[in-house]
Design brief:
2 strands
């Protein structure tokens, strides 16, 4: 019978990464008025702004979309490579990109946001599944939808068709997805608190956290 312990460890990692993602997204929204993760919002904003004929106003959102897409492509490419430490490299690269952004922003404020979108695109496919449950670090709408779906199926006492063990229920999966949402939400709250006190260095904690995940993943690769 499959052990729940590896699933718990993966769940904790996903929730922690979602917290980092929410932190970075909240930081960018507060300071620059654009998302570096919420591409639905950027797409809507860019579309409305372009419809009004304001190309230059739409450019930051468009750059964020393109950068996130490039990061997602790169992250997926590496996670499907034969490199044993591919996820560790993704976390390390994301941490480095945040540091580059901090340096750029110190010298020229309001620049370098594409680095943030690319970094978040990189980590999005780093962990795409916990047990049999597909998860997303950045697709908050989808996460909320899955919470509702799992709760509805749990209320009907329906067991997941791909359940790994008796503990792998829809209620268990709803709790997992809820943890991801809470992690993201908590990260956004922390960004609002710490950005006031840390100023241009506000992304340093996120960079250090990603570096920690890089070291951890290198020592014990995520399955």
């Amino acid at each position: 019978m499959p052990n729940a312990s590896p699933v718990r460890r993966s769940s904790a990692q996903v929730v922690s990464l979602a917290l980092i993602a929410g932190y970075v997204d909240g930081y960018a929204l507060r300071l620059f008025g654009i998302y570096v993760l919420f591409m639905s919002g950027n797409t809507t904003f860019a579309g409305i702004t372009l419809g009004q004929g304001r190309f230059f106003a739409a450019l930051p959102a468009i750059l964020a979309i393109v950068s996130f897409l490039a990061g997602s492509f790169s992250g997926t490419w590496f996670t499907h490579s034969r490199l044993r430490s591919s996820r560790s490299l993704l976390f390390a690269a994301s941490a480095l990109l945040l540091v580059i952004f901090i340096i750029l922003n110190l010298h020229s404020p309001h620049t370098g946001t594409p680095f943030l979108s690319f970094a978040m695109g990189l980590i999005n496919p780093a962990i795409s599944r916990v047990g049999s449950e597909p998860v997303s670090l950045t697709f908050v709408t989808g996460t909320l939808n899955k919470i509702g779906t799992h709760l509805a199926l749990a209320s009907r006492r329906i067991q997941p068709s791909d359940a790994e063990a008796p503990w792998d229920t829809h209620l268990h999966r709803a709790a997992l997805e809820s943890g991801v949402w809470i992690g993201f939400f908590t990260g956004a709250i922390l960004s609002g608190v710490l950005a006031v006190h840390l100023g241009p260095l506000a992304l340093l904690p996120a960079s250090l956290a990603l570096l920690f995940f890089a070291i951890q993943s290198f020592k014990s690769p995520i399955k």
